Amino acid sequence: MILAALLPLAACSRETPEVVNNSAAASIGGPSAPATAGPAGDGATFTGMPKAKAPDYVGRWIGVEGMVLNVKHAATPGRYRLEMQWDLDHKGEFKGDAVGDTIVFERNGVRETLRPTNGDATGLKYLAGKTECLTVKTGEGYCRK
């Protein structure tokens, strides 16, 4: 009898999921999908909109005159290991962080950014016409074959 009296109270004491406004969807210009709670305990919400997949830059990228870039995944998601030969005399390894569709890294005390471009945007005649490239700055770019 006591147990029967406690069951309705237990059912009423359950917390209801909060609705979270998805400001990212609203800023894109599309209608905001209603958010619902994610799996119990994960603190996430599901808005019905898929997350954009980060570009996959892992692999070997070729530049000119011995320039080469090897992009590898690091142990942490969103981080990369970059092995670069950026001119005839300089090479090194750097840690990179995914920021949108770019990879940001520090080389010789200077913050650099690898951004997706085409071969024409690299400013290098040998890479002109290529379609899948990463450029640090004019004169330093790498393309997939």
Structure description:
By secondary structure, the chain is mostly beta strands. It has two helices and ten strands; from the N terminus they run ααββββββββββ. The strands form two sheets. It has an eight-stranded antiparallel sheet with strand order 3-4-5-6-7-8-9-10, with no helix packed on it. A two-stranded antiparallel sheet has the order 1-2. The radius of gyration is 24 Å and the shape is globular.
Core attributes:
145 residues; mainly beta; 8-stranded antiparallel β-sheet; two-stranded antiparallel ribbon; 2 helices
Reconstruct the topology from this structure.
Elements: H1 2-12, H2 23-28, E1 36-37, E2 45-46, E3 59-62, E4 68-73, E5 79-85, E6 91-99, E7 102-107, E8 110-117, E9 133-137, E10 140-143
Antiparallel strand pairs: 1-2, 3-4, 4-5, 5-6, 6-7, 7-8, 8-9, 9-10
